[in-house]
Amino acid sequence: MTVAKGLEGVVALESKISSIVDGVLTYRGFNIDDLADHAQFEEVIFLLWKGRLPKQAELDELKRTLDEHASIPDVLLEQLRQYPKDAHPMAVLRTTVSALAMFDPDADKNDPEVNYLKAVKLTAKIPTIITAFDRLRKGLEPVAPKAGLGFAGNFLYMLTGKEPTEVAKRAFDKALTLHADHELNASTFTARVAAGTLADMYSAITAAIGALKGPLHGGANEAVMRMLEEIQTPERIESYINGKLERKEKIMGFGHRVYKDGDPRAKHLKEMSRQLGEQVGNTKWFEMSKQIESLVYEKKGLKPNVDFYSASVYTYLGIDKDLFTPIFAMSRVTGWTAHVMEQYADNRLIRPRAEYTGLTNQSYVPIDKR
Ligand SMILES: CC(=O)SCCNC(=O)CCNC(=O)[C@H](O)C(C)(C)COP(=O)(O)OP(=O)(O)OC[C@H]1O[C@@H](n2cnc3c(N)ncnc32)[C@H](O)[C@@H]1OP(=O)(O)O
Ligand SMILES: O=C([O-])CC(=O)C(=O)O
């Protein structure tokens, strides 16, 4: 058997949801640049789930349904109050999404229409979970979801208690579009592996959240902000980056398994970081990021991925760094659920093989003789 470590280059399944060909990312055949510049996130959700752009009435209906399902059960809200205030929000999200299954009488019903409604419910409730926990850990009461603000606007509203500016809302909406799906990335693959056993959608999404948490995947956006804060000032960039590279440590937010000549999403986030930095009157994180980008390219030939500039974008939007990965999940859940539904529609158990490299011909030794 030949082993493809990390499954590099292995084509594991067919999908009609998103593709990466020659460095170009498309959702259902639409270039990500086009969607990022023109679409609302809810249109992208519809596109991922239904395979086409919505008409106005369909978009309005999706927004209405998302608003309708945004609340979480009181018992889960009470549980959020009990969790340690220093719990990682990704751990809280993973646990609460898992718990949601127990409050959905149809959790185990595997039917296309019911699964679509589960995708709506999961997408609608994740922002409420993230914002409620963030406020509770700060000693504030959760802000209930407000209908009519849109998905991005409602998140920012529940986080701060204030209706966001149009600029903040548009920037955040665009960031959500850029993170919504990405072919067979690790967390999506995880979701499909779970769905491939015909486990319910809540199980698949809980598993995906666990996979996204790692710093080699979605957790990198938080790690980028930690790095920027650790470096502190532009003068320290060179020695910090050189030190990391000499010790053969990874620079967070750089490199990619598929893109070898740059991630097409990064340029949008870079421009957003520049604009938001100017608007809030603090270009430091953007300027430092730009310098790190040049240096890492010069030293290692590596380009930034989606996580690199999203760190400064979210910071400029006033969001705490440990919420960055939950925000990634809040967008990516739309892609995960689209993939889970695609998996159910034409399922086969996902079960690769492993090349055994362990000991052989061992004989059992009684415990008192070992
Ligand atoms: C949303 C996302 O998930 S995007 C990715 C987010 N993750 C990160 O930003 C973490 C940092 N990046 C990485 O760890 C990697 O680039 C990954 C995990 C994204 C991809 O990993 P792989 O495809 O397995 O690439 P691999 O780790 O084999 O890297 C190939 C070479 O580039 C180097 N390299 C890759 N990324 C980096 C990096 N960020 N910093 C320094 N060197 C790097 C590796 O050390 C290796 O060098 P070598 O050949 O001299 O040993
Ligand atoms: O595709 C990957 O390996 C990681 C990634 O960029 C994503 O999930 O957005």
UniProtKB/TrEMBL annotation:
CDD domains in the cross-refs: BSuCS-II_like (cd06110)
Molecular functions (GO terms): citrate synthase activity
PROSITE patterns: CITRATE_SYNTHASE
GO biological process, one term: carbohydrate metabolic process
Active site, renumbered: 256, 307
Keywords: Transferase, Tricarboxylic acid cycle
Pathway membership: Carbohydrate metabolism; tricarboxylic acid cycle; isocitrate from oxaloacetate: step 1/2
Signal peptide from the UniProt entry: none
Catalytic reactions of this protein: oxaloacetate + acetyl-CoA + H2O = citrate + CoA + H(+)
NCBIfam families the record matches: cit_synth_II (TIGR01800), PRK14034.1 (NF010637)
PANTHER family associated with the record: CITRATE SYNTHASE, CITRATE SYNTHASE, PEROXISOMAL
Protein name according to UniProt: Citrate synthase
Species this protein is from: Thermoflavimicrobium dichotomicum
